[in-house]
Amino acid sequence: MKTLKPLNGNQTIAEAVRQVDIDVVAAYPITPSTAIVETIAQFKADGLIKGEFVCPESEHSAMSVCIGAAAAGGRVMTATSAQGLALMWEMLYIAAGLRLPIVAAIVNRALSAPINIHGDHSDTMGARDSGWIQIYSENCQEAYDNFIQAFRIAEHPDVRTPVLVGLDGFIISHSTEIVEIEDDEEVRRFVGEYLPIYPLLDTSRRFTVGSIDFTDYYFEHKRSQIEGIENSPRVIEQIGQEFGQKFGRYYSFFEAYHLDDAELVIVVMSSAAGTCKEAIDELREEGLKIGLLKPRVFRPFPYQKIAEALKDKLAVAVLDRSSSPGAFGAPLFTEIRSALYDYEKRPKIINYIYGLGGRDIKVEHFKEVAQNLVRIATTGKIDSHVGYLNLRE
Amino acid sequence: MKKETWRELTIGTINLNAGNSITNLTGTWRSGKKPEFIEENCIQCFFCWLYCPHFAIKVEGEKVIGINYDYCTGCGLCAEECPPKEKAIIMVPEEIKLAEGR
Ligand code: SF4
Ligand code: SF4
Fold it and tell me: What is the position in ligand 2's atom list of the atom closest to the CA of B38?
């Protein structure tokens, strides 16, 4: 039976792990994701998790253990943040290249320097080319729901690609909400049994995992890896629907909030989308036709779907919680701007970098963005393509 | 040998042809030097066998008997590690013979 529980983001992830019949958890604690690892350790000590819990000496080793365990044929997860993800770097590419369906909860946190423990997306955005599927969560409920679906997506035979689920550091990881926790058995049945294709523990067949490729095969292997993530959109869509039919909460590539009739649009991911909805409610009351597009899946990037949703708008502001120093705007902006290029009629589009190192973003800041969009829509002029929100200038 | 297209490859770089490195004659990588085995100096310590990165030390009847030049890359580790004062493996110059068509 479904139960309502007061849980924070970290606890919801641990709950999901408890429910999915995990074989191996390998993780090294780091703020703000520590409580995920801590709660799982407690579950293991209390006999609520049958799988192995490995506490290695670093995140690099944690991901290495995940890779070994997944290659052996296990269902595997880890959790980390910021520098922890950065330390996993080279192993992230290996997990994706070997097509191992590892699932990771990344509690988004700013990268050093300067050292900071608060939420922004610089960690996962930096890993955007590692070959992992990336799904972002607005609140604790979404973190839980996304994490459960992540196993189905990663393990789908046509996908077999690792998935990371992002939730904002502190804002979600440490905020308690009432979360609908589904029945253990129902979740177990939804996720199903994992059937590895070439588990190393199957000694009846001879094969090598991770042998060297030179100029003659590397390119073909990389292309075949790309196919996995390119197969994932229909799987993500189908599993989001199935999850909805079963548990009543439907998921797709993005959430549209007052988007259909909107002339002006704000695009923002994760927890800030909640604040943005508040701002949109107020602005709508003032008569402004403004809406929100909240991307959920960033890799694979649903460029056609997002472009279709935005192409007829007058002006769009894309808000990024990370920066890409020296680039023309931050990651989400460059993706969306590029996706719109082929449309003859397309909106004016600008980028705001916000919330680095956990800097607050409030309703008033979204209103500031809205004012700029109104100005751009009426004058057709853009003063600056890339701006910074709530920064002392 | 016909090389597979990307669609024909097994998922996740899995190589179903395990042990196929035997077909990769790493001896062709040697460039200018090769190890020479001097049997009378050998104390059968097996250091060379242990250190050789290419399993190119020939062993027969639990004895080191020489070098397999099909796989020896000429790295020199065996000669470096060989303990006797009068070494049982020394590196000697080798004329580079390019196989036809290479
Ligand atoms: S030179 Fe290197 S590759 Fe050749 S036998 Fe000695 S250790 Fe092995
Ligand atoms: S290291 Fe030298 S002495 Fe020892 S077994 Fe090899 S050749 Fe013989």
Answer: 7
User: CA-to-CA distance for A217 and A222, rounded, in angstroms?
Assistant: 9
DSSP conformational letter for A30? -
Q: How many angstroms separate the CA atoms of B97 and A363, rounded? A: 75
Question: Would you call B95 exposed, middle or buried from its count of C-beta atoms within 10 A (0-12, 13-18, 19+)?
Answer: exposed
Distance from the CA of A177 to the center of ligand 2, in angstroms?
A: 69
Taking only the tens place, the pLDDT of each residue in A343-380 is 999 999 999 999 999 999 999 999 999 999 999 999 99
Q: Is B23 on the interface with A (CB under 8 A)?
A: no
What is the residue range of A40's domain? 3-247
Taking the C-alpha atoms of residue A1 and residue A365, their distance in angstroms, rounded to an integer, is: 41
Give this complex's ipTM. Answer: 0.88
**pTM to 2 decimals?**
0.90
Are A198 and B9 inside 8 Å of each other by CB?
no
Shared domain check, A193 and A138: yes
Q: How many domains in chain B?
A: 1
The strand pairing partners of B58, in sequence order, are B66
B48 within a domain of the structure (yes/no): yes
Residues A63, A92 contacting (CB under 8 angstroms): yes
Note down the domain range covering B86: 24-101
Across the interface, do B19 and A206 touch by the CB < 8 Å criterion? yes
Residue A211's pLDDT is 85
Same domain, A195 and A269: no
- Residues in contact with A159: Cβ distance below 8 Å, sequence separation at least 6, in sequence order: A101, A133, A153, A228, A229, A231, A232, A235
Name the phi and psi angles at A292, rounded to 5: -125, 140
Quote the tokens at residue A176.
Answer: 């308690």
Q: Are B12 and A100 within 8 A, CB to CB? A: yes
Interchain CB distance below 8 Å, A98 and B12:
yes
Which is more confidently placed, A386 or B22? A386
B97 touches chain A (CB under 8 A): no
pLDDT at position A110: 98
B7 touches chain A (CB under 8 A): yes
Low-confidence ranges of chain A (pLDDT < 70): none
The answer to whether A237 and A253 have CB atoms below 8 angstroms apart is: yes
The whole-angstrom separation of Cα A167 and Cα A124 is: 10
Residue B82 CB less than 6 A away from ligand 1: no
Please say if the pLDDT value at position B102 is more than 50: no
Residues of chain A with C-beta less than 8 angstroms from the C-beta of B21: 211
Instruction: Please work out whether the CB of residue B77 comes within 6 Å of at least one atom of ligand 1.
Output: yes
